[in-house]
UniProtKB/TrEMBL annotation:
It holds the Pfam family TetR_N. One of its GO terms (molecular function) is transcription cis-regulatory region binding. Transmembrane segments: none annotated. This is TetR-family regulatory protein. Keywords: DNA-binding. Residues 38-57 bind DNA. InterPro entries: Homeodomain-like_sf, HTH-type_TetR-like_transc_reg, HTH_TetR, KstR2_TetR_C, Tet_transcr_reg_TetR-rel_C_sf. The keyword DNA-binding applies. The keyword Nuclease does not apply. The lineage of its organism: Bacteria, Bacillati, Actinomycetota, Actinomycetes, Kitasatosporales.
Length: 203
């Protein structure tokens, strides 16, 4: 998803959205973990020689950084599009942001799982960049909760803590959701919206 189509497609998911090499790297990371994956394995599964892979990505770390960066950029763009669709209605902003988070972590389960679980494998500036992106994402929810409390739409006395709890609940979907399970991503999102309303003290 790109900025150009963000406004109309934040609910739409078609494939992983990753370039083929990164899609292969993601599959390898899911199967073997970052440290258990070798450049040779990624190259072989992508139909490339090792030098051919290095032409595109100079290291295994570069592959991980590209995968994680795509995940965070995609989530951010979708979240901003959901908030834009919601307008100024703070309850609707909360509903759509929660829906967006749940859909992303269900449809992009592998991508989200690697982005969150392999932060320990990022080094130097890449780690700092990821943490900055994660914190900016959190601030979207923080802002909605603070606004809702200020307007007396939400009654929770702990907006910051509740904001983090909601985000943690939504991102946790990537750890357990399976497409063959009882609920579709959209059905799950509806339940999470209901749970979130109770958590914030909404009517």
């Amino acid at each position: 998803m790109t900025k150009a189509d963000a406004g109309t497609t934040w609910r739409t998911y078609a494939g992983s959205g990753l370039p083929p090499i990164l899609e292969t790297a993601l599959a390898c990371f899911m199967e073997h973990g970052y440290h258990g994956t070798t450049i040779r394995t990624v190259a072989s599964r992508a139909g490339l020689s090792v030098p051919g892979l290095y032409y595109h990505y100079p290291s295994k770390q570069a592959l991980l950084v590209a995968v994680v960066s795509y995940a965070m950029d995609d989530l951010r763009e979708r979240s901003e599009a959901a908030l834009e669709e919601a307008g100024s209605d703070v309850q609707r902003r909360l509903d759509l942001l929660v829906e967006c988070l749940v859909l992303f972590h269900a449809y992009r389960r592998d991508l989200a799982f690697i982005a969150y679980s392999e932060i320990r494998s990022l080094v130097g500036d890449a780690r700092a960049t990821y943490i900055g992106a994660r914190d900016r994402q959190q601030r979207l929810m923080d802002g909605v909760l603070a606004d809702g409390v200020a307007r007396k739409v939400f009654t929770t006395p702990y907006p910051r803590e509740v904001s983090r709890a909601i985000v943690t609940m939504c991102t946790g979907v990537a750890q357990w959701y399976r497409a063959e399970g009882a609920l579709t991503p959209h059905e799950l999102a509806e339940r999470y919206r209901a749970m979130t309303r109770m958590t914030v003290g909404a009517p």
